[in-house]
């Protein structure tokens, strides 16, 4: 687990007090273990503020500042979005197990996306990455705005997604504009309580071969429903779901 995606999932130190981040994590695991089959977590400046899992089946707040600033419709919409993504990810695990000729064992699909904003310089950045069984599967290159696969396993999906320019443009718009908009809004909501803890590390709750206790991070108010979701990608139809600020996160097929 030495790739960028899994480094981010397991945590990295925050060093710039002026830099803020909004991150979403989706995790799906095979059934039959003492761990929710699907979880989503949203974090602002590495602080969990929303959470959903397949046991509670409801998006829940993890901070007072999000409770005070959004209404019940926010939780209703995001609960529906996470429930939809839950089914998508369940199907993805089965699809990818077939792709890799796996018939049993514990397997995981993980997805991480979000953005960063420096409130001093105004610089922004985005990230959008997927993994399977602790390895990078596919990632969006935010310099070329094309998906890349670090290994053979994700090449079919990368080629297919890259043939949809409208969806790639949507990803660019979301990561560079919409996500940053919501990040700024969330920072304003929680400015009195958010802490910039230098050296703070998020604990990893999934490793390559075993499940660790969940961090109970949250999901967020902004899910996205862009054109890039619910599409078929390359023969076996693996789908991916995600979240985004004040919008509902759809499912996308790999």
UniProtKB/TrEMBL annotation:
Residues 227-238 have a biased composition (Gly residues). Residues 1-17 form the signal peptide. GO terms for biological process: immune response. Residues 223-254 are annotated as: Disordered. Residues 19-194 form the MHC class I-like antigen recognition-like domain. GO terms for cellular component: external side of plasma membrane; extracellular space. Keywords: Glycoprotein, Signal. InterPro entries: MHC_class-I_related, MHC_I-like_Ag-recog, MHC_I-like_Ag-recog_sf, MHC_I/II-like_Ag-recog, MHC_I_a_a1/a2. It comes from the Eukaryota. Pfam families: MHC_I. SUPFAM superfamilies: MHC antigen-recognition domain. Belongs to the MHC class I family. This is MHC class I-like antigen recognition-like domain-containing protein.
